[in-house]
Specification:
two-stranded antiparallel sheet, alpha+beta, 131 residues, 25% helix
C-alpha cells in the first residue's frame, strides 16, 4: 500500500516549550514516501512537529507521531510536561513522568489480579518506534 508521511512543523519558531501548548498552526515541510522511520526522525529534529500518515489509495489520514522539544503539556493532569506516548485506546498523548508511572502501576496491578505477566514499561513514542 502506498503511504505518505507528511512532516508538519509549527509556524511558531519559539524554542520555549510552553509557547506550543495552545493551538499551533502547522505547515507541511517534508513528505517521506513509504518511509515512516525517516519521517519520525525528521520531525524529532524540529522544535515542534507532527507526522501525518496518508494512504494515497484510500485518502485516509491520521497523526502517527508528535514531538515538542521539552515535551508537551501532560494531557492527563495538565500540570507537568512529558513526551508523547502511544496509549492503547487513546492514541498518541503527551504524558508526564508522574502520570505514566501511575498508568504503569495500574496496568501491573490489573495484570497481577488477572494472573497475567507484568507488562513492559511504557516508552515514549520515538523510542518505541525506532527500536
Amino acid at each position: 500500500m502506498p503511504w505518505d508521511y507528511d512532516v508538519r512543523e509549527c509556524t511558531n519558531d519559539s524554542t520555549v516549550p510552553q509557547e506550543h501548548d495552545g493551538e499551533c498552526e502547522m505547515r507541511t515541510v517534508a513528505t517521506h514516501q513509504d518511509d515512516w522511520r525517516n519521517a519520525y526522525q525528521d520531525a524529532a529534529r524540529r522544535t515542534h512537529a507532527v507526522v501525518l500518515i496518508r494512504n494515497r489509495g484510500l485518502g485516509t489520514e491520521a497523526v502517527t507521531f508528535k514531538h515538542t522539544a521539552g515535551g508537551g503539556l501532560c494531557e492527563t493532569c495538565a500540570r507537568h510536561r512529558g513526551p508523547a506516548f502511544e496509549l492503547v485506546g487513546l492514541g498518541l498523548r503527551y504524558v508526564c513522568d508522574q502520570c505514566i508511572r501511575s498508568f504503569y502501576e495500574d496496568a501491573c496491578s490489573r495484570a497481577k489480579a488477572n494472573g497475567w505477566y507484568r507488562p513492559d514499561p511504557y516508552r515514549p513514542a520515538l523510542e518505541k518506534s525506532l527500536s
